[in-house]
Structures are given as structure tokens and as C-alpha cells.
Predict the structure.
Amino acid sequence: MGERIIELRDIKKSYGQVYALGGVNLSVDRGEVVGLIGDNGAGKSTLIKILSGVVKPTSGEILVRGKAVSGWSAARSREAGIETVFQDRALAVQQTIVRNIFMGRELTGFMGWLKVGKEIEEASRLMREIGFTSKVFTPHSIVGQLSGGERQGVAIARAIYKQAELIILDEPTTALSLTETAKVFHFVRQVRASGRSILFIGHNIHHVFDIADRFVVLDRGKVALTADRSEVKSADDLIDFMEDIAHPDGLPGLHEDAEQRAQ
Amino acid sequence: MSKAMEPDLQTPLGRASDQIKDWSHPSDNWLRGFILDNRASLGTLAVFIVMMAVFMIANPTVFTTWYLYSSVLTTLPVALFVVVPLVFVVTCGEIDLSFPATMGFASWVFAIVVQAGYDPFLGIAAALVTGTLLGFLVGSLVVYGGLSSLIATLGMNFLLRGLIQIINEGKSTALTGLADSPAYKIFSSQFFGIPVQIFWAIAFVVFSALLYNRHRFGAQVKVVGDNPDSARQMGIDVKRVRVKVFVFTGIGAAIAGTFSVMINFTWWPTAGDGYLLPVLASVFVGGTPTWGGIGTVVGGAIGAVTVSFIQTGVVAAGLSGFYVQFFNGLIIILSLLGHKWNQARYR
């Protein structure tokens, strides 16, 4: 594995008396896709907010490329090349793909006039880089006409334009069909091939299993499991494990259900 | 389940050979692309052409005389200078109903400066400064005060108009020396029988259309109107952009007010009042939807031409003035129905 992009050491976050995160260790290397799995309330969104600098941890250490960073903030997070892609709200759907990619960072020349040709060229390059090309749409297409998976592609292209080294995808496939999920996976593979890293967050193990190189299972504010792809035989292995930590005493019939579903 | 039914998960966007390397517009020929990109303004143009055809059939003699067009071309520019900035305001997801009072206020400052014996150019500069400041005041009130722009600008319209009336006690100001000034010749005389203000108005429309489609300001106005949360997340100062569109309207209203005074050689305390409803109608007849994010400057300008011709046309076609309002309403409703059909709203 390559360079370590970011490392969280013993991150704790408490809201008053309540611990949202109780000592989390997490790292992402260059060119790696890490799948972060956790149930609702496991602390996923708190972890995303800490990574993007919106929320400051109560205690713990954050290392960027091996160096400890003091005064972690949204600006520091951006400097480190971390971009979060939220599933909703991220795109202006009545605008073209170009306008969304360059939102807030328009390519301008004299007196703020847009360099339209250069924007198209740059947008085409970015879209080609993540394999986001089609006969059906062009950089001029309106985002509202694209499918859910293709919209994720626009958001990923924008993150890459912002020089992102690590792209955090927050539940990118939760509301998507199988075909649309395949599109998102296609983009993620291209991004990995270009040497960037992805933190892929989801609560559905099947969604994360096919794409991640490494799995991190979060449970009630703690990392319950870290496993390489090679260590996990199938998605059902992970599901069994998740069920074990969710119901340590065991629920009669639950495992049989899962096995039946797998068959 | 047959193989063909299964989704292609390895190459979900099609085989690499299917993917085109260099993009062009999806339409094969430029004409289709042009029509797709400009369908709102082209629709407005179609409404205008049909309306004029009806008028011409109703009264061919009047509609082939130049006088009719000359009178429209004299008053139309005043409307254009406020319709165009309002397209920006509506695209940004706001509305500004205070522009009639800003027109009156800025042109009042112009009248004061000219009457005091200063050069009209100085008066124009003073009017522009007044319009900018009033636009900034209205915009800040709405944006930083967190008020509804519909109600707050309506209130500002009454407030400013009331202020003008209180101070002037309803008296108008005649500007007799204006006709001999160089400023009048440049901005308000005739050029081969064509009122020159229409050239200034066309230049303003072209500049604004470029600002809307080819400038960072226009791009950010559209994004803020479309999805303010996303714009904020991407580092756009959403409040600043919103204030700017009100400032732009203030500047446009100042130009419009000054032009209306130069046409009449007189400033009235009610200057600008009659423009509220026709100007708003022009924006929406032009094809800018009410929900923000998209719009068309050129369409708005064509909408203003349409609305200007309704009044002149109805009377010239031989109908009594009582029909004007009816036709105004008819055109607005028909235009909205037409635009509803060709504007898809994406979410």
C-alpha cells in the first residue's frame, strides 16, 4: 500500500455526557477504497463531520501524510485534499454538468468573464478520467436529466476538480437500483485507478462489499472490526459478524434467515 | 431470466467503443441545439409574432405606419432597463417590488441636480449612485434582515414613494433647459427618426444577456437560485450574490427613471408607478419561471416588447381602451400555459 493519506488515532467525541465516538482508529492509504459500515447511530455521520473538519473531536490525534495536524478545521481538511460528497443537496439540478463541476470555482478570465471553451475542455477531461462518458449526455446536459448514479458521477468529478486526494462518499448507493449502483462502482474504480482514495460509507453491507479493499465496521462509537478484503470470504461472513455484535446473546432464527436469503 | 435482461454491471455506461471520445452537442445539427437551448425565448418570440399578425389583420393601415412603432420605441426602453435586472432577481429566487419607487427616487435626484443648473451628465451620475444605494439598502434589508423579499420590497416601495410624496407634496418638476443639453442628444433624441434610447436599451439587454450566460455573476445567480445549500457548501457567498441582484435592479431602475424624465422633460412624484405590473408581467411572459435557478434575459426583453404592443395594438386595432386589461391578462395566461409545456422542472 502507498502513502498514508490520513490517520485518525483514538478519536473521541462527546456531546455532553453522551459519547458519539469512543476512541476510533481509522486510516486510509493512497489508492485504497475503504468501506465504512455501521448501523444508524453507530457514529458514521459524526466521523464524516470530523474528517471534513466541521466538527472538532473532543480528544485524539489526526495525522495527514504521517504528520500530526494541530488545529483541525474545515480549511485544514480541504488543504489535506479531503472532499465529502453528500447524497442529496450537493448538486444544482437545473444547471448543466459544467456549471455544477465549476460551482463556486468558475474558470474566469478578464473581469470575471467565463472561459467557456476551457471549462468544457476541463470538464470533459475530468469526466473521462472517471469513466463518466456516454452518447446520451455531454458536459452541456442538465443534471436533472441524469439518473441517480450519474449524478454521483458529477459530484465525484467536481471533487476531483477540487484536487481531492480522499473522497468521502456518504451513502452513495442507498437510494439507487442495481444498475445505478454499478455506475457508481464504475466511477469509484476509475478514481482508485487514478491513485486517489475513497472512503465509501454505507449501512448496507452488500453495497460496500463489492467495492471496498478494506472494511471497517463501526458499532456504537467504536471500531468493532477491521478486515482486509482477503480476510473476508463473503458478504454473509460480515453480516454474521454484524449480527453477532448487534445481538450478542443471539436472536433465535436470525442466522437461519440470513442463510436462506443467501441461497 | 435471459442474459439480455440482466443489467450490464461491468460496463454500466456502455462499452468503451460506444463512448464517444470528443463531445459535441447532443443534437447533430446546430439548429436543433440552438432551438433546444433557447426554447423559452423562442416561444415568447412566437407569441409576439402571432399577436402582431392578429393586430395587423385587424387593422392593416395603422400597423404599417411608422408612428405606431416610434411611440412604442420611445417608452419600451424604460421598461427594458428594469425587466432585465428583474430576470436576475427572479432567477436568484427573490422578487423586487420596490423598483417603481427607486425609479421615482433616482429620477428625482436627477431632476434636482439638473434644476439646480448642473450638467445633466452629473445628474445621471447622481441618479445612478442613488439607485445603487437604494438597491443595496433594499437588498441588505431582505438578505441580512432575513425577510421575505415579496413583502419587504412591497413595504420599501410604499415607504420610498411616501417619502417622495411627503417632501414634494405632489408637485412635479419641469426641466425646460434639458432639450438643448448634449446629454439629451446622446440619450433621448432621434436618429434617422428612430428614438436613440432604444439603442441604449438594446446595448443594455445584450450586455446583461452576456452577464447572465457568460459571466461568473450570472453563473452564481443561477446556482444560488437553484440550490442555495449546495452553493454555500461550494464556497459561494450566497448572501452577497443575493444583495448584488438587488443592487443591479437599483441601477437599472435609476437608468429607467432618468430616461422617463428625459422623454417627458418633467419629473412627476409618481414617476415609475405605472411600471410595476407591466414589468413583472414581462419577466414571466418572457419565460423566466417563478421558482428560480433558470431564466432568460432575451426572453424577458421580448416579453417587454409584447406587453408594450398590447396596449398600443389593442387601441390601434380599433377596440376601445376597455379591452387593454383583458388582452394583457389573456397574453399573460396564454404565455404561462405555453411555458409550462416547455419548461421541465427538475428536482
In short: Chain A has a mean pLDDT of 85. Chain A touches chain B through 43 residues (CB under 8 Å).
